[in-house]
Amino acid sequence: MSTTLEKIKPDTLARIEKQAQFLGLSVDEYLQRLLPIEERELALKPEFPDDEFEQDMAQFADVTELNDRKGSYSREDIYFDHD
Questions:
Q1: Which residues of 39-48 are buried (b: 16+ CB within 10 A; e: fewer)?
Q2: What's the distance, CA 77 to chain centroid?
Q3: Which residues 6+ apart lie within 8 Å of 13 measured at CB?
Q4: Pick the residue with more confidence: 11 or 45?
Q5: How confident is the model at residue 44 (pLDDT cuts 50, 70, 90)?
Q6: Which of the 8 DSSP states describes residue 35?
Q7: Alpha-carbon distance values, 76 to 46, 66, 67, 68, 79 (Å)
Q8: pLDDT tens digit string along 20-43?
Q9: Which alpha helices (H) appear in the chain, and where do they start and end?
Q10: In Å, what is the CA distance from 47 to each residue of 42, 56, 63?
Q11: Are 30 and 19 in contact (CB under 8 A)?
Q12: Model confidence band, residue 1 (pLDDT cutoffs 50, 70, 90)
C-alpha cells in the first residue's frame, strides 16, 4: 500500500523541505500554512456596525479637501525622491 509521500516526486519533496527551512518552519508547519483556512474563519467580522462605518466615511468626505489638478506633472515632480 503506497503512502501519500511515495506519490510525491523526490525533487518536489526537496523543494518543499528547502522552502520550509528557508522560512524557519518545519515541513508540517509550512504545508499547514499552504492549506486554506476553513470557511468560517475566512469571514471578516467588522469591528463596528455598518451604520457607524457609513457615518465615519461621510464625515471623512466632508472634511477631506482635494486640490484641483492643474496641468501636467513633470518627470521631476513625479520622481522627486529618486536619483
A1: eeeeeeeeee
A2: 30
A3: 5
A4: 11
A5: low
A6: S
A7: 42, 22, 20, 20, 5
A8: 999 999 999 998 888 877 755 666
A9: 4-7, 10-22, 27-34, 39-42, 50-63, 75-78
A10: 15, 13, 23
A11: yes
A12: very low
Grid cell for residue 36: 486554506
pTM: 0.43
Instruction: State pLDDT tens for residues 45-74.
Output: 666 677 888 888 888 887 767 677 777 878
Report residue 19 as a C-alpha cell: 522552502
Length of the chain counted residue by residue:
83
For the chain, domain boundaries = 4-36
